[in-house]
């Protein structure tokens, strides 16, 4: 027998779940649905009182039963099971589902959503402690003459009253209000705002006002998913243009400005020509890829001299643990042959620093890889790169896992692949690694499960962190002078993760900082500077020209460890940089301003984000500024029990000799193999 969740309906304050039964046995009794919460292992049982046509059942349950205050838990993921008794046995079946529901708002700060996991099993997820100032819409589009917005008009089945969409002009604070009307479905509203109402040369933020029960509410409008597939540009008569964008907090921004003039369009022609050139390069790359595949299959013999190939982040950098290992290797064993696999853009850097290299995706690169003895990389090689049997492949990886990896990602939504295909390719690639470097027991266990990895793990710590352990105050002073950072000021490092939902549409990314630089300067600008380490897609479009007296953009700086060393504290969110920064025993402040959205819409976490971090969490800008003040007053965290518990779990095995241990491992392999 099989049970499949087939429907979900709102019934006053309860949710009605519908299940399809397949291959029903002849007779059974005591039919019930059991809910089991994954984290707490709490359980709730609901008897089945309604059986329809022998293969369809329905139950009603209040979401209040599926959330509780114990343990400070705010996220609940319930698995569903169908249980019944037959003449001979008691049967428990896990409920399947291909049904994915939208978000159903339970209150201003909580919602639920039904999903299907990687195995096709149903999960009923409840999310509490959501930001009170956010209202999620379904879509926003520009038609020929209107800005069209759709969203839900109910909270927990209760209709929203007096609902209005508000346009607020950012510069003046002026407001325009538009009532909502019924949408195409009874639970949806729709608002059409005439484009001619938009003030000229303005930036408008979207808000919503409404009454629910006796409470009057104003919230900013957000769109959790990207703008892809929605109409975001419109040209008005008279040479005006309207543009929809998302800011970094997923808020909706409407811009009205003059359409490009003929001169500006002519000036844009080089960009269009560049697009044609890029298309030609894409075609050329495809042809070259076929040639590379053929070259890898043509057969090679190894060099007589031990040759070690290093690669970092697919050839985009000369950095990270491979670089730390390379530098020590070149110092201790200059008689070996070392070659860096790089993108063409790094040729100048390698020449300036006397680093031997080969350019990726060339005939020489194929020959070098295939004839070398060892590969040392921190990321995956393409699947079509053939690994000869005589090559020892050492994978250093590039961080302690916070977000789910590999097989542990239940639903893969990347274009061009499926969850099953992605998992298969990941395991196939991982088991080409002969040895995998791990920084701690926690990572070792995850690497085994997430990579399906069955070969040798070198639990020696990350070689890139040797620099953090072996550096002294004089080294830090020299670094600051080289980087142009004032010696008499404290340094705050902001290093957030790149968010998949920052993608707005093809070629466009949101990039606004989630806090005010003006507020930062007002409170800390006299004796503190701010270092930004952003993702390159965001950094390239970021304008900090008005703040160069205290803000330094080091997003393109090659060695992030130098940024750790010169900073007095770290601000981050979901980036794994804090695992490395903890080696310094300096304060870390977490600013996950979109934590619930990020966790729900993107990948999950291995750690309990609300309990296991080595620092305080700031949920908004006010808490962020207060947290910075507190962190700068406590520069040494070695006396903080919570911090040291984290340090002992994740950092304690690294003694500053990780590079040497990997070098010794390779040398031992060379001696063993003659």
Task: Describe what you observe in this structure.
The chain is α/β, with parallel strands linked by helices and 674 residues long. The strands form seven sheets. Strands 13, 14, 17, 18, 19, 20, 21, 22, 23, 24 and 25 form an eleven-stranded mixed sheet that branches. Strands 3, 4, 7, 8, 10, 11 and 12 form a seven-stranded antiparallel sheet that branches. It has a seven-stranded parallel sheet with strand order 28-27-26-29-30-31-32, sandwiched between helices. Residues 501-510 have low confidence and may be disordered.
Summarize the model shown.
With 674 residues, the protein is α/β, with parallel strands linked by helices.
- First-last Cα distance: 61 Å
Low-confidence stretches: 501-510
Gyration radius, rounded: 28 Å
What portion of residues belong to β-strands?
Answer: 25-35%
- Shape descriptor: globular
């Amino acid at each position: 027998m099989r049970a499949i969740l087939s429907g979900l309906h709102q019934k006053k304050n309860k949710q009605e779940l519908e299940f399809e039964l397949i291959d029903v046995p002849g007779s059974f009794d005591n039919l019930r649905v059991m809910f089991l919460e994954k984290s707490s292992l709490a359980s709730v049982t609901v008897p089945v009182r309604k059986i329809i046509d022998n293969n369809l059942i329905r139950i009603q349950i209040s979401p209040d039963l599926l959330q509780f205050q114990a343990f400070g838990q705010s996220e609940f993921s319930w698995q569903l099971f169908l249980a019944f008794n037959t003449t001979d046995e008691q049967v428990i079946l896990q409920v399947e589902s291909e049904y994915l529901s939208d978000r159903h708002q339970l209150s201003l700060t909580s919602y639920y959503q039904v999903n299907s996991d990687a195995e096709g099993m149903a999960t009923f997820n409840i999310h509490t402690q959501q930001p009170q100032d956010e209202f999620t819409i379904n879509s926003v589009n520009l038609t020929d003459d209107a800005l069209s917005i759709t969203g839900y008009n109910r909270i927990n089945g209760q209709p929203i009253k007096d609902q209005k969409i508000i346009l607020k002009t950012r510069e003046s604070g002026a407001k325009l209000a538009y009532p909502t009307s019924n949408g195409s479905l009874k639970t949806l509203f729709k608002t059409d705002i005439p484009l001619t109402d938009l003030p000229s040369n303005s930036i408008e933020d979207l808000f919503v006002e409404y009454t629910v029960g006796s409470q009057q509410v104003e919230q900013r409008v957000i769109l959790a998913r990207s703008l892809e597939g929605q109409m975001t540009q419109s040209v008005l008569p008279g040479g005006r243009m309207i543009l929809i964008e998302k800011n970094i907090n997923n808020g909706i921004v409407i811009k009205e400005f003059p359409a490009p003039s003929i001169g500006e369009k002519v000036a844009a022609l080089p960009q269009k020509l560049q697009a044609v050139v890029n298309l030609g390069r894409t075609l050329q790359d495809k042809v070259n890829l076929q040639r590379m595949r053929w070259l890898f299959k043509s057969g090679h013999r190894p060099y007589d001299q031990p040759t070690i190939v290093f690669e970092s982040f697919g050839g985009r950098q000369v950095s990270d643990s491979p670089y730390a290992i390379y530098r020590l290797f070149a110092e201790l064993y200059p008689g070996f042959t070392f070659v860096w696999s790089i993108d063409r853009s790094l040729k100048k850097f390698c020449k300036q620093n006397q680093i031997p290299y080969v350019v990726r995706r060339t005939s020489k690169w194929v020959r070098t890889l295939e004839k070398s003895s060892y590969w040392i990389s921190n990321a995956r090689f393409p699947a079509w790169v053939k690994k000869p049997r005589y090559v020892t492949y050492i994978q250093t990886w590039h961080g302690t896992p916070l977000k789910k990896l590999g097989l542990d990602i239940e639903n893969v939504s990347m274009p061009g692949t499926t969850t099953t295909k992605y998992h298969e390719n990941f395991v196939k690639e991982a088991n080409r690694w002969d040895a995998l470097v791990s920084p701690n027991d926690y990572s070792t266990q995850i690497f085994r499960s997430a990579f399906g990895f069955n070969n040798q793990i070198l639990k020696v710590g990350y070689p890139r962190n040797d620099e953090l352990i072996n550096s002294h105050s004089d080294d830090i002073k020299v670094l600051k002078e080289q980087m142009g950072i004032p010696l008499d000021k404290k340094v705050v490092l902001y290093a957030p993760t790149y968010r998949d939902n920052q993608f707005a549409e093809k070629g466009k990314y949101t990039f606004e900082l989630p806090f005010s630089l003006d507020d930062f300067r007002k409170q800390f600008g006299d004796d503190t500077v701010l270092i930004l380490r952003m993702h390159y897609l965001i950094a390239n479009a970021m304008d900090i020209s008005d703040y160069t007296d205290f803000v330094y953009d080091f997003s393109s700086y090659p060695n992030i460890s130098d940024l750790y060393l010169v900073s007095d504290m770290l601000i981050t969110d979901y980036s794994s940089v804090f695992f490395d920064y903890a080696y310094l025993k300096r304060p870390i402040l977490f600013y996950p301003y979109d934590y619930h959205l990020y966790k729900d819409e993107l990948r999950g976490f291995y750690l309990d984000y609300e309990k296991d971090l080595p620092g305080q969490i700031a949920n908004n800008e006010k808490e962020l500024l207060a947290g910075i003040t507190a962190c700068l007053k406590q520069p040494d965290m070695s006396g903080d029990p919570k911090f040291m518990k984290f340090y002992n779990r994740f950092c304690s095995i690294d003694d500053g000799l990780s590079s040497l241990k990997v070098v010794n491992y390779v040398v031992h392999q060379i001696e063993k193999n003659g």
